[in-house]
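Office hours follow-up: a student asked to see two folded examples consecutively, so here they are.
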Amino acid sequence: MNISGIDHVEFYVGDARQAGFYFCTAYGFHVCAQGGPETGLVDQRSLLLRQGDISLVLTSGLTPEHPATEYVRRHGDGVAVVGLAVDDATGAHGELVAAGAASVAPPTVASPMVAPPGTHGGRLSSAVVSGFGDVVHRLVERHGPADGLLPGLVPVPGPHPDGNGELLRTIDHLAICVPAGQLAATSRYYQDVFGFAQTFEEYIEVGGQGMDSAVVQSPSRGVTFTLIEPDPTRRPGQINDFLQWHAGAGVQHLAFGVNDIVEAVGALAERGVRFLGTPASYYDTLRDRLGVEVPVEDLRRLSILADRDHWGHLFQIFTESVHVRRTLFLEIIERRGALTFGSGNIRALYEAKERELSAVTEEAAA
């Protein structure tokens, strides 16, 4: 079994068209396909958004029985499916189930696959297995054009961007919150069943709160999950809030990789994206501490975090959550050689989220 990367991420949302408008206007995605009752998706409405190598599917249930309807009722809008690119969906499904994953949907083949105008159709095989919480993994095997669509989705007519000027390039990683006591078991599940390796672990204590984190990664390095659990012996904090508001384990944030974080954050801020702030004192010794190549004043002005590992530097910034439950948010990250995560940025993120949630609480009490 070879898991080469993330094929797509599917969000279950209350209103796919409204969510699509936000991702397009704020982040620069474009709608390249859509599906619904008129295309054979009887009980749902879906949009496929693309930018760089990123594919996002937004799905809303049209009936009370559809899984997206129940997901949104319980969790609110959020990531429900993480699609994994594999070279053999049927074989991967069999291996994963034999190793301990639960089969959610057996292997199916869609052929010929609808493709955008000017391209030739291909064949897509897929199967679904269990992941974490209510999130599942769709195993996707593609033969034919790389931009072939998912079954039930048809191309949206009209001109599409040629890639020039796109800011977001890849899905760098997903951060996943799990209840206290489940981090080790979740990490072991991905190691034993999916063949991932645990590449990083860290305990963070901030203001009487504590959290454990671990990173698991596919052998190809194309799929990276950061796992986070709260320390129940410490004062409850934002990880506990996520688990309560989300009603269980789920994706806390989705990280988009960029080539130039200063350019990307500046452009996104102009479009109205709001980012978490960082105290100015964070940058006072940054140059001496890390030897940062990017002008520190640009980082300070945009509240971009900087860190390093054994292989190089990384730069990160996190958005404010726009979800009514204050759960899912996004990250922008640029790697300059770094392969893992610096512990300084994990602490800085935790502190930034605490400031955001404290501000929301104060506003509600006013």
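And the second, which I mentioned at the end of office hours:
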Amino acid sequence: MKNFGSKQILAALWLSVMLLMPFSLVDAQGSLLLSDYPDSYTVVEGDSLWNIASQFLRDPQRWPEVWQPDAYLDNADLIYPGDVLKIGFVGGSPRILVQRGGRTTVRLGPQIRVQPLLSVIPTISLESIQNSFTRNRIVSQALYDAAPYIVANVGDALIIGTGDEIYVRGTWPIGTRTFEIYREGRTFLDQSGEQDLGLEIEYLGFATISADEAPGLKRVLINNSTMEIRVGDRLLIREEARIDTTIFPQEPASYVAGQIIAFLGADSLASQLDTVIIDLGFSDNLAVGDILSILQPGDLILDEEERRHMTFRERLRATFRSERLQLPSKQIGTLLVYKTFEQLSYATILSSSEPAELYNQVASP
């Protein structure tokens, strides 16, 4: 009798599962996983979580939906070089499972030995920082107005969201089928109130062209939405990520100084891991990864020692003139710049001893 190998048995089991699986579930898995995802992936030194997720997923940001650590492993939530990652299915849903093994065991004797340590793949700390990043953008009003816009929902649903199809009209860039959806937000002006620094647009989701309906009119599928989408919202070319899970903070190439001009939402203060908008951009040689200090103006005080030597008339004159001594600014926090535009940038507060306020100065450390 012919014995079946483990590979044949696994193949048979896999075929049985796929035949029994509902078509809707298969479609959902297909939309999540790459069509050519590998049978397994071995983590190497220097990998980032983004790089690892890109081996399996169409959208690496959906990693938390499929990652399933092995509770029986030490430090199960962490990924190490040498770990083997494979796709499995739990309850019919795809999961990325880890196999840890194949490492060399070294017995240490009573002597000093020097061995290189494998570093943990950076996930938790950088992931917590990235969760505070906004996907909003700052563009010119002209660029936003020229972008294709939503004219109608294909179905009868009153609310447009993930999985819906919409009609979009406009001038389309050649060779691009995936777009991000945005809504017009705040316009930022300089201190004089005359120069336009840019228009903030709010990220709503991303979509893919599904059909050409007429010249300039296309049917578009909404792949993912973070909030309700409306007629009139615009589609822009999907922005390439300029920062991943490996960040190398550095000082700006040259000295820069500016100020915080806005927070996300209606907040009036910002603290650790909050995002702020600063009036510096790549036109100021600011780059992603630059570190800036948050400065609070020093107090205005009366120099009592100086006043002690003044005559009564001089003290009276100084009081009417509101003469005060300005103390130097003090550092109350540190910013990491993670998204730059021509004249403005988004930055997250890495550390703070006091809440940051609007118009606090920011400068090279």
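Two things to take away from it. Confidence is low (pLDDT under 50) at residues 1-29, 117-125. The helical segments are 6-20, 23-32, 49-54, 63-66, 124-130, 141-146, 304-308, 312-320.
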